[in-house]
Amino acid sequence: MTAGPPIDPLAVNPIAVPVRHPNRPVLPFATPTSKATFIDTTVSVRNGPSVLVGLQSYIAPYATLDASRHSAIKIGYGSTVQDSASLVAVPHGSPAGAKLLVGNNVVIGAGAKILGSSTIGSYATTAAPTSIGANAVIDGATIDPGAMVSGLAMVGPGVTVPSGYRVLPGVSVTTEAQATNPALGRVVKATASDLSAVQATLTSGVGLAAGYTHLYQGNSATGSNLGADPTVSGVYQGDLSMVEGVSGAPGSTYVSGSKALSPSFPAPTGGLVSANLFDFAGRIIGQAIFTSERPGQLQAHLGRANSIRADVGQPIVIGSIAHTGRHVVISSPSGGSLLIGQQFRAGTGAVIQGSPGVHVAIGNDVSIGSHAVVVGSSLGTGSTVGANAYLKNSNFDAGTHIPPGAIYVNNVFQGYVQR
Known about the structure:
The chain is mostly beta strands and 419 residues long. It has three helices and 45 strands. It starts with 16 loop residues before the first strand and ends with a strand.
């Protein structure tokens, strides 16, 4: 009797499936809605046979999963990789063969970079929620389950952030002492509120995975999928137009408080009209309301790989966009609403997000610099935010100028980003 091929140890405990045909956008292929992982159609996957993902995870628009150069990536179950985040197992100039491991119940924030032989969380069935903030960098480090890294922070090679600690925004952690001793000013003890916020994002991510799976393969008009297990009902051939370009959100069946609405734009005869536009060069999802720009005008002003997602927090109302760079993310992944005025500008890699229970208002003629992170913060008309700045839960008057790299939390200046 001939033995079969050896089982890849990354494919078990928990079970994970390679991101290769036919396991996209639903993984594994033809899985029932309640169990599936959903990988957005814009996600960049390199060496898919070596990128393995577990069940009930959500990989958001324009994320990158790069397991080239004989490396491997594994993502567990119930995890979320947010918009434009990058998981790169072998960064340029590094030796081949690295394994980048993302456990169960992990949030990788928008624009974050996980590099090299990093380990985030664990694959234990009871793994505590673990999170990496927007535009943070984890480079060959270990983030224990139940630990958190705030936005624009960096954790360097060989460092382990222990469970129960949160790395502060914008700091650089390069030694174990900095990662474990709050007196050194780089970490604090995570609070119950911190854990609750991460859990809310994870819960929404599981719902989005199911919801987008249903939008794609739950339409009986596309006919039964002949390649699916005939004992599994409700799995049809799939409709990519429902999950590309400008498209609708899954709604409250899958995410509490969400509305199953499509983006809306000015109609030629006045008023607003909703639209699904599968060929739009960008990802705009859910209750995103554009009051002044029709789709063609908007597309001309958006940079490549922009994501505006109103599938959890909503509405997101935008007057007009003058210009954005590449990989700009506008969303409200934990709830809340977001209002942006006329002639908005954002540089490459900027992340603008709402906050639960908060109405964020960004006035007219506001400019946000490259790789800046603005979370739950309002900005008055004519304000500017410098590159790599970090603003959280703060409010600024009209004409405010935030210098590059400045950190404000709860309206208090905290210093400058260290990287």
